[in-house]
């Protein structure tokens, strides 16, 4: 305890906070300048730590990049799923999930850059992130099939559907990212939701 009665952080807790501050700082730098310009010096300065501290947590810049997208992707998924789980399973939950993802992209302008530049600058991280997304979708779709809310599909067909859904997400995100007018972004989300719902209703989900 310190003089104010607050508990002192343990060494492991301090280390965890510093590591997360470096990852959060890297997200900010990459979002603003891209992976190629995200130097260790800039990341450390943004995190408010000495440059030498960086090497206590990451061997080099690439080692951090290889963790960056899964870290930021988990933050996105946590935000999206927190809202999606409040919706009824089936069509409504999937629409909510899609809507929350698009709004996350609109509200967190740098996320798109962190995500799509990773395919070139941090391919291992990109593969991990996509695997995380696919596994979540797979569990959700299988639950939908088991509950009778989704057309019966084989495992291979489920994976095909997942990647098709990811394609719709990716290009809707691109459209939002490159449109800087907030009003137009809102209309893009509204139109994307309308089209997405029509596709899902007609092809996959059984709405109860």
What would you say this structure looks like, in words?
The chain is mainly alpha-helical. 75% of the residues lie in helices and 0% in strands. The radius of gyration is 20 Å and the shape is globular. 25% of the residues are buried. The model has no long low-confidence stretch (mean pLDDT 91).
Summarize the structure.
This protein has 208 residues and is mainly alpha-helical. Helices cover 75% and strands 0% of the residues.
Write the layout of secondary structure elements.
Blueprint: H1 11-33, H2 40-47, H3 51-54, H4 61-84, H5 91-107, H6 111-121, H7 123-146, H8 155-178, H9 182-203
Residues in β-strands, percent? under 5%
The ordered string of helix (H) and strand (E) elements is HHHHHHHHH
Report the principal-axis shape. Answer: globular
Number of helices: 9
Give a short account of the largest sheet.
Answer: none
Q: List low-confidence stretches.
A: none
Could you tell me the mean pLDDT? 91
Helix % is over 70%
The secondary-structure class comes to mainly alpha
Distance between the termini: 55 Å
């Amino acid at each position: 305890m310190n003089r104010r009665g607050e508990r002192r952080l343990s060494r492991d807790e301090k280390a965890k906070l510093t590591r997360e501050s470096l990852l959060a700082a890297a997200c900010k730098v990459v979002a603003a300048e891209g992976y190629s310009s995200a130097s260790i010096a800039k990341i450390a300065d943004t995190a408010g730590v000495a440059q030498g501290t960086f090497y206590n947590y990451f061997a080099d810049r690439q080692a951090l990049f290889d963790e960056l997208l899964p870290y930021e992707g988990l933050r996105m998924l946590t935000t999206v799923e927190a809202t999606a789980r409040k919706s009824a399973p089936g069509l409504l939950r999937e629409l909510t999930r899609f809507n929350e993802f698009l709004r996350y992209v609109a509200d967190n302008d740098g996320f798109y850059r962190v995500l799509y530049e990773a395919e070139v600058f941090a391919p291992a991280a990109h593969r991990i992130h996509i695997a995380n997304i696919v596994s979540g979708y797979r569990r959700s779709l299988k639950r939908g099939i088991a509950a009778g809310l989704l057309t019966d599909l084989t495992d291979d067909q489920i994976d095909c559907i997942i990647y098709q859904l990811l394609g719709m997400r990716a290009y809707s995100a691109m459209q939002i990212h490159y449109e800087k007018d907030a009003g137009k972004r809102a209309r893009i989300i509204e139109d994307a939701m309308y089209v997405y719902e029509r596709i899902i209703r007609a092809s996959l989900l059984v709405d109860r």
